Amino acid sequence: METIYIAFLGFGTVASGTYQVLKQQEEKIATSMACQVQVKKALLRNRGNYVKTAHHDFELVDSLDAILTDESITIVVEAMGGVDFAKDCIEAALKAGKHVVTANKILMAQNGEELTNLAQSQGLALYYEAAVAGGIPILESLRTSFRAEGLHSLSGIINGTSNYILSEMTDQGLSFEEALQAAKDKGFAETDPTNDIDGLDAARKLAILCRLAFGMTIPLDKMAIRGIDHVTSEDIKNTSTLGYLIKPLATAILDDDGALSVQVGPSLVPKNHQLATVTGPMNAIYTRGWASGEVMFYGPGTGALPTGNMVVADILKIVDALVHQEHIPALSRYHVPLNLSAADREIFANFYHFKLLDRDKGLFKLTALFEKYGASLNQLTPIGRHHVLAISQAMTWQDSKELIAEIENIDGISIDRIYPILGQ
Ligand SMILES: NC(=O)C1=CN([C@@H]2O[C@H](COP(=O)(O)OP(=O)(O)OC[C@H]3O[C@@H](n4cnc5c(N)ncnc54)[C@H](OP(=O)(O)O)[C@@H]3O)[C@@H](O)[C@H]2O)C=CC1
Ligand SMILES: N[C@@H](CC=O)C(=O)O
Fold this sequence. Notes:
Layout: E1 3-9, H1 13-24, H2 26-33, E2 36-43, E3 59-61, H3 65-68, E4 73-78, H4 84-95, E5 99-102, H5 105-122, E6 126-127, H6 138-145, E7 151-157, H7 160-171, H8 176-185, H9 194-197, H10 200-214, E8 224-225, H11 233-241, E9 244-254, E10 260-270, E11 282-289, E12 293-300, H12 304-323, E13 349-356, H13 359-372, E14 381-383, E15 387-393, H14 397-408, E16 413-420
Parallel strand pairs: 1-2, 1-4, 2-3, 4-5, 5-6, 8-10
Antiparallel strand pairs: 7-9, 7-11, 9-10, 11-12, 13-15, 13-16, 14-15
Helix pairs in contact: 1-12, 4-5, 5-10, 7-8
Bound molecules: NADPH dihydro-nicotinamide-adenine-dinucleotide phosphate (NDP) and the ligand N[C@@H](CC=O)C(=O)O.
NADPH dihydro-nicotinamide-adenine-dinucleotide phosphate (NDP) binds at residues 10-14, 43-46, 49, 79-82, 85, 103-105, 130-131, 134, 302-303, 307.
């Protein structure tokens, strides 16, 4: 039976999960693929950090060349993270004629198009299923199962740390700081959790999703990105009384003219919506399409085995094509020129949390202002003595900012919060 050899670049959480799946399912893989898949080498930066307790049957090497010049190695798995060195390694591996699998979301969000083009020009695979929502096979589903679908929108909970933090604040009454510490203790958060909290991690994953779902490559500076660190327990309580949960959502909505609106940030999800059931560190991607209707993909967004399972799926896709001498399909969609919403990051609906210091005077002025912007105060609920919550439909982000600026100038009102609402 033929053997296909692979090499790891880095051997941390994802690589060791990948190795574990390959070893544990060795027989099943060999039988179903009519081919054996074996790890031959792993590039390590610091052998001292390598966990010796794990049994391994591959060679540990210190230089990339030891992998690139080994002609028996067909597939390179980049599992180091970071941008510059990882990019150099992937380019070098492709130029050396090796197929590449990576879980690197930062690199694939930033340089995905360029690297995919390089792989395609070489007739090689560059697969990165594990880069978005770790254990959920969403990218391949978008590429294959939704090939003929015209998606209208995609909303995802694609950062497990921020979902865990907001869930703990909602369900256990923890403060933001307590919930963040718990996320660190449980290993969901990155070593430096800044990008989990400020929305950048989810924005990178959304950029990758949009390439596969809508064919558009979106630079991160064109997205409206907000973090979850300003969410307070009071907001959670107040919005809950109105029937909403605050969730870390990444959303892309395509309008009838083909313009995409993209945003990431804490958003209000009606309690009876499927995305409201996605709690703790779990991830989900909810799509609405012309033909498929509503579909939700749900699963773990992180962890050695779930993520390793997706890396193995990418490896086996390549193995399958090699064994059957088939063309290697590119993990990309037809390219559509970037077309962001004319209204610049339109938000379907907004939620405002006001403190009316002088209730009667404030309310009068607030209603007049909303009228001026063509928005509606369609849910106005006093909470406590001076709090009022209001929801206005379908405002643009630019209008929202202007409205807020005007509100802040009114005596007797202080605006505390603004949250978008998941489009119904
Ligand atoms: N963990 C998860 O659940 C998920 C991770 N990912 C992505 O997968 C990738 C890997 O993540 P993860 O496994 O968690 O990271 P880890 O930190 O656990 O592992 C990274 C490994 O790469 C090694 N490494 C880093 N830089 C170099 C280098 N210059 N040369 C050689 N080896 C190097 C590290 O070595 P050393 O020990 O010396 O630092 C370590 O062994 C990242 O891109 C991450 O974003 C994606 C989805 C989920
Ligand atoms: N820190 C990330 C891990 C996976 O990408 C998250 O919390 O989702």
